[in-house]
Design brief:
With 228 residues, this protein is an alpha+beta fold. The chain has two domains: 80 residues, Gyrase A, domain 2 (2-Layer Sandwich), CATH 3.30.1360.40; 136 residues, Cyclophilin-like (Cyclophilin), CATH 2.40.100. The protein has a seven-stranded mixed β-barrel with strand order 5-12-9-10-7-6-13. The chain has a four-stranded antiparallel sheet with strand order 1-2-4-3, covered by helices on one side. Strands 8-11 form a two-stranded antiparallel sheet. 29% of the residues are buried.
């Protein structure tokens, strides 16, 4: 549900969390993006960084310059003046994926959990256009939704200590891609040869909040050719 008025929460001695709703939805996430764009276009004195998430925006500020009470008033004033906020049109990115085998060790388990064929899992996963709700966990990791209800799957009971770079995974009704080798508790369906994060590029992350993503299946040979 989208809140009629934003909720403000103090987070430590230099952070203010603004919550715009109580659930994960495109509508709430759009409001987060609008607020993020608004603050980017109208810099507020003392604000050092803004970090958007599913349903909230975290503001990091300099406590020697401003405080939470002043920030709240300034942000509310900006929201009243900015009735219409133009946010950038999302880009659509198509992501190739090798599903199953060593690339997707959980594909068969997910199919068994839902009592469907492996091909059905792939079709369900590739048949949806996903919105990038936020970037987090590791640099460039996109949290995307929503998975089809038939593919909603709980997290693994025991997380893996190492997941290969490029692994495409699901948990609950979210799907994501591991940009770097890291631990993780999501079910791995496959792997993409695309690089999601490069600190030497501008911007360093392939995907950003608001982007749209579609997956399409490729064969193992195509994966190897991509790398070569």
């Amino acid at each position: 549900m989208l809140y009629e008025r934003s909720h403000y929460r103090i987070m430590g001695d230099r952070s203010l969390l603004i919550e715009l709703g109580d659930n994960i939805s495109p509508e709430v996430n759009r409001r987060v993006r609008e607020l993020s764009v608004m603050l980017g276009q109208n810099p507020v004195e003392g604000v050092l960084e803004t970090i958007p998430a599913y349903r909230s925006l975290l503001i990091i500020y300099d406590p020697l310059i401003t405080n939470t009470r002043v920030l709240q008033h300034q942000i509310e004033d900006l929201q009243k003046k900015s009735e219409v906020i133009d946010i950038p049109e999302p880009k659509t990115v198509e992501i190739p994926v090798v599903y199953g085998a060593d690339y997707g060790p959980d594909l068969k388990w997910v199919a068994g959990y839902h009592n469907i064929d492996v091909e059905d899992v792939i079709q369900l996963h590739t048949g949806t256009t996903y919105q990038v709700y936020m970037i987090g966990f590791t640099p460039g990791f996109p949290y995307m939704g929503e998975l089809p209800e038939r593919l909603a799957t709980p997290r693994r009971e025991t997380p893996r200590t190492t997941i290969p770079e490029g692994s495409v995974a699901i948990a609950q009704r979210q799907t994501g891609i591991y940009p770097v080798e890291s631990p993780g508790g999501w079910h791995i369906l496959g792997r993409t040869p695309m690089k999601l994060f490069n600190p030497l590029q501008v911007p360093p992350a392939l995907l950003e909040m608001g982007d749209l993503v579609r997956f399409f299946p490729i064969e193992k040979g195509e994966f190897e050719q991509w790398h070569q």
